[in-house]
UniProtKB/TrEMBL annotation:
GO cellular component, one term: nucleus
Protein name: N-acetyltransferase ESCO acetyl-transferase domain-containing protein
Any GO BP annotation: mitotic sister chromatid cohesion
Recorded GO MF terms: protein-lysine-acetyltransferase activity
Domain N-acetyltransferase ESCO acetyl-transferase: 46-114
InterPro entries given in the database record: ESCO_Acetyltransf_dom (IPR028009)
Length: 118
């Protein structure tokens, strides 16, 4: 049974996600907004090496560290003899789930994105 899949590709640059201003209205719907909010990114390119084109985990197997393990494996095997840092990774047009995962995985809200329609 396949529980996870990650497709990675070589890239040259990414763009940092910009933090959205906090909602002042409808604070009781904060969780809802977090899941439906779009994201904005910087227009300044930064060096990136590995692009996460697709990442998916079977719904009943989520929040068990599977995506984390898949991406750790990619970082250790993507370049022969090298190890990628979390700063060298970018995510292709992240979904709301992908955004929450990327923020946690990269240990920063300003993770990098690529491959989006401006
Ligand atoms: C995004 C996705 C791949 C994450 O897979 P996962 O195996 O559940 O991720 P992990 O268990 O490694 O998550 C690591 C941390 O990221 C954060 N995180 C991941 N998914 C989250 C979510 N839906 N909501 C909030 N935080 C989330 C959590 O902090 C989590 O740690 P915790 O469970 O100890 O709190 C999975 O939700 C998925 O397949 N979603 C549908 C497809 C998709 O949207 N892909 C993203 C494309 S960019």
């Amino acid at each position: 049974m396949v529980v996870g899949c990650l497709i990675a590709e070589h890239i040259r640059q990414g763009f940092r996600v910009l933090e959205q201003p906090e909602q002042t209205k409808d604070m009781t719907k904060e969780d809802f907004m977090e899941h439906h909010r779009v994201w904005c990114c910087s227009t300044t390119p930064e060096k990136a090496i590995c692009g996460v084109s697709r990442i998916w985990v079977f719904s009943l197997a989520r929040r068990k560290g599977i995506a984390t393990r898949m991406l750790d494996t990619v970082r250790n095997s993507f370049m022969y003899g090298g190890h990628l840092t979390k700063e060298e990774i970018a995510f292709s047009d992240p979904t709301p789930d992908g955004k929450l995962f990327a923020k946690k995985y990269c240990e920063m809200p300003a993770f990098m994105v690529y491959n989006f329609i401006g």
